[in-house]
């Protein structure tokens, strides 16, 4: 991982949100991500062949040109049945009227980009598949290569909100690919695995990376995944809560396996983004922290 560079917003002396100030205070201590992560390797292979499908880990394989990757503005080469013409809200800009998809896709009023980040193996792809398809990808772990995205339209208080969700590769060797996508993300879900201490210890380094590459006012939520694995748990809920509090982040524990709090995590960011973009003074302000605290369920509720 390259040495962290300072975020442009910090050079301008802006305070930024609470978690950024916290990273700033502790930034010197934030090192690179865990040495346990795979070493960097030559240019990243291509994205998976189909939306949402993971590509098996390949060593030294060369793939199609990088242009096959979805562009950082969210566009990607058109393929039958996948085109979703319609506007994307600019980062933090006003929503633009949605358009129906000519390809028979979903209608929506406003669209946002959400990015999943965190160490390899924490369950980013499984979380996305659970949210999108309501299924769990059990079995052999197939690490994501590069980046991919899937869309889902939510009904948020009567408005159709399209989330374009980018599933990033957690492996260190793809870091340079994912860096390019941060700046267009409206929201980030930062995951660790409650059964993997290193993934928790790496959260501060991820925050430093987010600080360096994402918009300074990106919506950010911390998720402790795999809470269904009670026997293997090594990161206590209180530790997650403490870390989240330290950085001023909304926090929930999730399980892609049981579905615990998965829809809630995405719905919460959709509500926050919608509210921010609408800026309707008459509407009571949506409070993301309070919402996830109130609506989040404990791990014990949903064992399979
Ligand atoms: N028990 C349990 N296992 C999970 C859960 N989420 C993911 N897994 C398992 O964890 C492994 C890794 O999941 P992925 O979703 O592929 O991890 P990832 O974060 O996308 O990893 P990279 O693509 O390498 O960044 C897989 O074997 C999954 O079956 C969960 O909530 N509970
Ligand atoms: Mg993955």
What's the CATH C level of one domain? Alpha Beta
Main beta sheet: strand number and arrangement?
A: 6 strands, mixed
CATH architecture of one domain: 3-Layer(aba) Sandwich
Question: Mean pLDDT across all residues, rounded?
Answer: 74
Question: What topology, given as strand order, has the largest sheet?
Answer: 2-3-1-4-5-6
Q: Which ligands are bound?
A: guanosine-5'-triphosphate, magnesium ion
GO molecular function: G protein activity; GTP binding; metal ion binding
Keywords: GTP-binding, Hydrolase, Lipoprotein, Magnesium, Metal-binding, Nucleotide-binding, Prenylation, Protein transport, Transport
EC number: 3.6.5.2
Cofactor: Mg(2+)
Sum this structure up briefly.
One of its GO terms (molecular function) is metal ion binding. This protein has 304 residues and is of the alpha/beta class. The protein is 27% helix and 15% strand.
Descriptive terms for the model:
six-stranded mixed sheet, single chain, 15% strand, globular, 27% helix, alpha/beta, binds guanosine-5'-triphosphate, 6 strands, metal ion binding, G protein activity, metal-binding, Rossmann fold
Description:
There is one protein chain. By secondary structure, this protein is of the alpha/beta class. It has a domain at 110-298: P-loop containing nucleotide triphosphate hydrolases (Rossmann fold, 3-Layer(aba) Sandwich), CATH 3.40.50. The chain contains 9 helices and 6 strands; from the N terminus they run H-H-E-H-E-E-H-E-H-H-E-H-E-H-H. The protein has helices at 8-11, 18-26, 124-133, 175-182, 197-201, 203-213, 237-247, 262-278, 288-295, and strands at 110-118, 147-156, 159-168, 187-193, 219-225, 251-253. A 6-stranded mixed beta sheet has the order 2-3-1-4-5-6, sandwiched between helices. Helix 8 (262-278) packs antiparallel against helix 9. The chain is globular, with a radius of gyration of 18 Å. Residues 1-14, 25-97 and 100-104 have low confidence and may be disordered. Residues 54, 124-125, 144, 167 line the site of magnesium ion.
């Amino acid at each position: 991982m390259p040495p962290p560079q300072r975020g442009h917003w910090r050079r301008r002396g802006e305070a930024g949100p609470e978690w950024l100030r916290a990273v700033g205070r502790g930034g010197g201590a934030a090192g690179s991500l865990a040495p346990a992560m795979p070493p960097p390797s030559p240019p990243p292979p291509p994205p998976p062949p189909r939306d949402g499908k993971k590509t098996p880990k390949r060593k030294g394989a060369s793939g199609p040109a990088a242009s096959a990757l979805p562009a950082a503005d969210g566009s990607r080469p058109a393929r039958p049945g996948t085109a979703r013409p319609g506007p994307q809200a600019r980062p933090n800009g006003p929503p633009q009227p949605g358009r129906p998809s000519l390809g028979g896709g979903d209608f929506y009023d406003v669209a946002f980009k959400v990015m999943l980040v965190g160490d390899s193996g924490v369950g980013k792809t499984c979380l996305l598949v659970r949210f999108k398809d309501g299924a769990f990808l059990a079995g052999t772990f197939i690490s994501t290569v590069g980046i991919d995205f899937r869309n889902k339209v939510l009904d948020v208080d009567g408005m159709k909100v399209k989330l374009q969700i980018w599933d990033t590769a957690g492996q260190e060797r793809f870091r340079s690919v994912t860096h390019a996508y941060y700046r267009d993300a409206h929201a980030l879900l930062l995951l660790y695995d409650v059964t993997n201490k290193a993934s928790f210890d790496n959260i501060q380094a991820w925050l430093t990376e987010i600080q360096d590459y994402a918009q300074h006012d990106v919506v950010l939520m911390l998720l402790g995944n795999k809470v269904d694995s009670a026997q293997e748990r090594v990161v206590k809920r209180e530790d997650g809560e403490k870390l989240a509090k330290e950085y001023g982040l909304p926090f929930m524990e999730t399980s892609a396996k049981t579905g615990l709090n998965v829809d809630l995590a995405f719905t919460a960011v959709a509500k926050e983004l919608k509210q921010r973009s609408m800026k309707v003074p008459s509407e009571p302000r949506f409070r993301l922290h309070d919402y996830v605290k109130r609506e989040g369920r404990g791990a014990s509720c949903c064992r399979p």
